[in-house]
Every structure is written in C-alpha cells, then in structure tokens.
Amino acid sequence: MGxxxxxxxxxxxxxxxxxxxxxxxxxxxxxxPNTIPLRVIAFGDLHGNLLPPQGLHxxxxxxxxxxxxxxxxxxxxxxxxxxxxQADHSVLYAVGDTWGSSPLExxxxxxxxxxxxxxxxxxxxxxxxxxxxxxxxxxxxxLRDGGCHPLEGCRYAPAFEGANFPILGANLxxxxxxxxxxxxxxxxxxxxxxxxxxVLPSNTPDIIRPDAITGLQFEDEISAVDRTxxxxxxxxxxxxxxxxxxxxxxxxGDDPCPSGDRGPAAIATSVSPLVDLxxxxxxxxxxxxxxxxxxxxxxxxxxxxxxxxILSVADLVIDRQSRDVVRDRTVVFTQVVTHDIDPDxxxxxxxxxxxxxxxxVANRPVARIRADVTRRTTTSGESPLGNLVAxxxxxxxxxxxxxxxxxxxxxxxxxxxxxxxTVSYRETYAVQxxxxxLHVLDLTGAQLDALLEQQFQxxxxxxxxxxxxxxxxxxxxxxxxxxxxxxxxxxxxxDGEPVQxxxxxxxxxxxxxxxxxxxFGVFTEAHGRTGAGKELDALxxxxxxRSQVEPPTVDRIRLH
Length: 560
Prior knowledge:
By secondary structure, the protein is of the alpha/beta class. The protein contains twelve helices and 30 strands. It is 21% helix and 26% strand. A seven-stranded mixed sheet has the order 1-17-16-2-5-6-7, covered by helices on one side. It is globular, with a radius of gyration of 24 Å.
C-alpha cells in the first residue's frame, strides 16, 4: 500500500458541485494540528469497462457544455493516481455494479480481469450492486474469495486469488437471516477509525433473475444503514460513509437535487444522522446534493457517472478529538475521466493483455451494418435496437411455434454502431452480455393484455414506473398513457389479427422476463414453457442472415 493511502475507510460531505476537467484536479485543502485531511475518491457502475465505453456511454458533457470522450481503465487509473498523490490520506471506493453485464474483455473470463484491475488500483472497498449477483451468489463468493471457475477453470490466468478488498452489503442476508456479505469495514486514518457501510436497494429482487438470488433476502436499506451505523458508533467509529447502489439519482426534471420524498432527498433525509456522507451510483446523472439529516445537520449525497467516466472526489476534515467529520469544511468536486491525460502505463498494459486474450473470439465478424442501431427511445418507448432484438428472438423460436417476441430494453447494454461497417462478436456480446436463455411461453390473450398493462407499475411515491417491452414486428397495439392503470393498452393485434382473450399464444422471452423480472409477474403464470436456446446466439444468427443490417422501424406501438 502506497504512502498516504488508507485501506477501507472514509466519510464525505459536500459543498458545491464544481466540475473539474483534465489537468485541473483540485489539491486537498490544508488542515490544522487537531484535524486530519482525507480525500475520498469514488466511482460506480463501472460494469467491467476496461476499454473506453462506446455509444451512449462514450462521452460526457463537461461544465462548459463541450461533449468529450471519457472513461477507460487506463485513464481512470491515471486520474486516481494523480488525485491520490495530491492528498496526505486517500481512499478509493466502488459503488456497486463494478462488474456484471461487462464487455467481452472482462465478461469472457467471468470478470476476473476486472477484479484484478481493482486489486491493482488498491481499491479500499466496494459496495454490492445487483449486477454482481447476475450469475448467482456462489459465483459472487468465488470472485470475492478466489478459485477457478467450477466448469471452465481458470481461463484468464493460471490461478485466481479473488478480491483484496472488502465487498459490502449490510442488508443482504440468507433466508435464515445470517449475513451474506460484510455489512461494514473499518480502517484507521492517522490513528482515527473511519467506517464505511454498503447497501443495495431492497427492491433488488425485482430487477434480477430470481434463480440468481435463491436463498437470499434484501432488508430495507434504511433500516440496515441505521442498525449498522449504530454498531459502528458503539465501536467508537464517529466518521461514517454509506455506499448505496440505488435508484435515487433519477428525477423527473432538470434539478438533480429535488426536495421532498423522491430522488436523493429520500435517503439523504432519512438515514441515521451518524452517517456523514452518502455516495450513490445509478445511471448517467452526476450530482452533489446537500440535505438536512434527521438531526437537522447538512449532509451530502454525491454521485459520479457510470462506466468509469466521472469520479466523485471529496476532501473532508476529521476532528482528532471527536473523531467525527467536520461537515462544513468538506469540499466536493467531480473529475471527468477525459483522454487528454497520459494513460497509466501499467493499467494500459493490463488492458491490452485482456484485449489480446479475448481477441480471437471478440474480433470474429458477425454481419455488415449500414447504419447505427441504437437504444434511443421514441415517444412510444420503442427503440431500433430493442425492436431488432425482439425480431431476432422471434426468428430463433419460430420452429417451436413462437408467434411473437417481447424483450426488456434494460437488458440491452450497448448500441450497434456502424464503425468500419462490420459488426463483430465483441459488439453483439456487449449488447447482450447476460448469458440469458430464451423460452417460449404459452399465454392466453387475456394474459397477454394483462402483461402489457404491467408495463406501468405503481411506484411507492410519484408517478407509475414505465417499462415498455420491445415488441416483435408482428405485434402491434395502441397505448394511452392518460387512461387509468389497467386500461392503457388497446387494440392488440398479432399478424394483423385481433388478439382473443381465450385463445392461447406462444410468446418468446428471455430468462429474466420468464421468471417475472422487472415486475412482469404474468410471465410466471404461463401454461407451458419450452427452451429456445441462447439469446445472444439468436441475435448473431439473425444478423448473419442479412446482407446489411439496418435499423428496424419504430412504429409498432401507436400512441392514442
């Protein structure tokens, strides 16, 4: 461990949201003899992106309004090292979904390269996200503790030692109530203990395959934080930070710091006042928001951008006597991981090694492409890529009698871009990295209608959550968002014929949906189920049968 670095500790607060571009990192501010400075650096939603991300996640709009390429492990490492060298003491946190749905360079080797990268970066601690559990709890514990893959062995290196950093999930337990992950970590900054708590959203079972979390329970995250913060206080820890991989950064308007019971305010104003800072991670928005905690003291929620594009940095001050964070002396800024800095040479060599190891598989051509096929949605909720994938899944299951296909657009993780005109296996894998299987389900027309109504789900507060499924080309209907819930879908047709309530229809979907993922419980009530192969194979086969891939139309859902 290098000088000035602290293992597994932190707390943070915020004052402003200054955005710092390449070469403009701010130095840690000075403190007095009775205080200790600590720089906190955090990133979230890395998703195993060793190379700079492409497509929708390839750029960041700086504070000056200029859009610039951002991300990539070698540039991330360069900024982390620069930020740490400026500080007397520093910690580095990953805030959930650090791996899972990863590009081929990491995913082909079960994300062992990402774990090795984080070890090389001297990561202080990581919070669990839902994607770390994509392939089940047993695989998560293998990546945490080490050992070769039970079926494929060690493909990336002769041995795999696991993570050298703690992975935290205070609200994750077994069915018997025993902890399924470490709830917290404690370390010492110049002799003063600092604690960090990691939690997942309690609704994680709604957004992950049920078979991946069999035997696990997800407690209310606020209750888990409050309990764990109390434990830390009883151990003499007064400086506490929470890492929360949760959906609290999305707002309906332009204000990233809304008031009330939605967005960052919901958790920032609710969890124990013992917590000094909450670092969150979910999606593309980055923000620094300050709210009053339950005791009336200001407390900050801070979030960077996904895929390693923006780091959150907090310079805080700890009082030696009280061992608590002096919140009004904390300064927060966000660091864009731009490419106008020299990439870290050690990390660059590491990434090149992972790319070379996956090259034979990754560079295999799949198809020719005429124009970009993206996940950008229309007002109906459709996207060209979603419709393309639904068409591919229908084609793959036609021999089993499938009549329509539906797919969840949240499972599409990258765009298909024109580039040099060739679509490679690397690119299609990036679109669908979850290793989902396909299933043909038997549903009545009435069930299909109820299923489409489930695209609108009641949220705990505020408007309904909307999850529009991508339909195959032969499924069409009218959508009326102003109608009451349960009556928003009308005039459903398949191949031009009106759907009949009592008639049975064969619908192809992936494993995630078939098990009721994203709140689509009607799928679990199917009258019959037949396996239809791998979803990635379906996409590759469909693309390969076309002389030129073009974006499909997005006119399958009519708006009333």
